[in-house]
Amino acid sequence: MPYEQIHACENGCALFRKEYADKDYCPKCKSSRYVVVDNGQGEKTQTKIPVNVLRYLPMIPRIQRLYMMEETARQMTWHKYGKRKEFDADGNKMLTHPSDGLAWKHFDEIHWQKAKEARHVRIAIGMDGFNPFSMTATQYSCWHVFVMPLNLPPERLCKERTFS
Question: What predicted TM-score, i.e. pTM, was given to this entire model?
Fold first, then answer.
């Protein structure tokens, strides 16, 4: 799947895209878009190496892929039409899918027009950062963003945790 590389300000102020695509300095904090090097004679110049890069993976093509196969498309409406196991062996009420939860039901009450269409995709997003090579002194870090479609039935949620 394709992805887009977007240069970012080192302080996280702005992304160098759209109206800032041709700028060499951040419009907010005025920091350099590119790595600045000293040539040894007191002169500083910008390289063409970006200080920060955001790698953007568009979600729309990934969601469209879920509806390309008939079986997966049918499973994407499970949260609305699927059969649930209401109680466990002890007679306690079970939460078998996020759509059984109060937050999902509350969202459906507020946005009832969107909730009518079972094919609308609900997603969960999580992220976590780490320093590569286990070096805590480095200024370099990676942040993984996990996106998971919640429409799928419980057995598929466990198998397909993220969009690939």
Answer: 0.58
